[in-house]
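USER: Please consider what follows.
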Amino acid sequence: MSTFKFIHCADLHLGSRSYGIAGRDPELGKKLRESVFESFSRIIDRAVITNTDFMVISGDIFDETTETPATRLRFAKELEKVKIPVYICLGNHDHVMSWTESIPYPENVHVFGSEPESIILQTAGGPVEIVGKSFPERHSSENPTIGIAGRQGMFSIAVLHCSLDKVAPDTEYGPCSLSDMVNKGIDYWALGHIHKRTEVSADPYVIYPGNIQGRSRKEIGEKGAYMVTVTDDRVTEAKFFATQEIVWKEVSCDITGKDINSMIGDVVSKAGTRSMVSLTFTGKGVLDAPLRSDTGDIMGQIEKMSGCKITDVTLNTYPPMDREKMSAGSDMSANVIRSSDRILGMGREEIIDTICKTKQSESIRYMLEWLTDDELRGLVRDAEVLIIDRLAGAVR
């Protein structure tokens, strides 16, 4: 049997800067920027250790503003180290390459142009065709599959950066459909642009490997690349392998029936080390008050015990009260709960309009519009709990 292996990765975004985090914590910002390089180094190491035949990179190696000489040189040195053919298509973020003449890539690297190009590579497992096409400009509504076709009697791979409508209907960045990829003689479509790992089809194979390192709380979970094994011109395995230095996680903890120790233990067990955690507390119980009054110190204890970094905290919690029974009453607390429920039943814009009825609150409208729906509704719940707590304190 004739067998060969290749690695498929995409959306490296080397040198990417986490501006919001770097502003609050420069050391953490530096660590996040370095984590992308470390992830790519692990991909290169995997290629060397496993005697991979070649590698394809499906666009967005850099962001336009982050391809510094040092970043490009570091990338070139990694490609030199791998010593196998590497085929690259450019995406919407790196369609213009800087420093090409002064910092050239090694001879084992081929970058596809903006017109379809076919290369035949001789591997130990027989010949393979790699077809590729780079983004012509930052915003391109051109279907990138046009002109892409494989040769008969040969395993063919297409390397493209595009927006597949089944995954992301994005008309500005190489829009195409799965139907465009069928009956084209292509056995494996190596795609880039979508940062979420997605195995779209197995006949033919159509795969987005996702980006190699999560860069924000929107990019949760393991990140890495695919190792693809082809035997007798047929994919026998397309397996994801994780390489990220830092994992972004969403962790939820129900405080109902918990004390401080059991709550911290629950969060620590879910957070794990080397992770960036978006933490949400739910339920009702005695922990509602300490979480609201001492959030920072409690989160610091969790970080110290788990080795994670908590990026944001959402409190969807209530004091240990019978909210339903309380809402049926006739006092001020009942009116607060009913008002809260009425506002939570509104649409997003109506909630913002309700909050911004005063001159002072209108001045922060722009801040509210940046919030997600969950964050906006969280403000309403927080206001309800704080008002009820103040009312209860006045009675006491």
Q: What stands out?
A: The radius of gyration is 26 Å. Residues 3-242 form a domain with the Purple Acid Phosphatase; chain A, domain 2 fold (CATH 3.60.21.10).
